[in-house]
Amino acid sequence: MTANAAVSATVAASPADVWHLISEPSRAVSWWPHAERAEDVQGGRFTMVVRSSRGVPVRTDWRVAASRRDVRQRWEQDLAGTPFAAVLRSSAIEIRLEPDGDGCLITVVVERELENRGLVARWLGRRASRRHAGDALARLSRSANASA
Q: Which CATH fold would you assign to the domain 5-32+62-147?
C-alpha cells in the first residue's frame, strides 16, 4: 500500500545553487521538516535526527540511492531493525531539479510503501507524505531563493 506525494515549485536559484543545498545531508537541516542534525555522514550513508510531533528526537538512517549533479538526489531509508519497519516496507525522498528559464523547477517526492494496515492508515500515510513533501519544498524554496 503506497503513500506517495510529489510537489513542485519554481525558484529564482539555478539548479547548481539548489544542488548545493541538497547534495550534502548536513545541509538538509536547513530545509527538511523537523530536521535537527545529520550525523555519521560517510560513504553515502547518514543518520538524520528529526524532532517528532511530541518533541522527542528520533534517529532515522538513510543512504544515497541515486545522485546526479544538478539533476537528482534520492535517499532511501534503512528500515531493517528499526521501529519504522513495523509500519513501513520502504521509504524514500527524491529531489528533482530542472532548469526553468533563469531559475529551477524543484520537485520533492516522498515515497512510502506501508505495511498493510487498512484504509485509515493509508489515508493518514498519504496525508503525512503530502505534508512532508510540501513542507520540505517550502523550506527548500526559501533557502534556494535566499542563495540566488
A: Alpha-D-Glucose-1,6-Bisphosphate; Chain A, domain 4 (3.30.530)
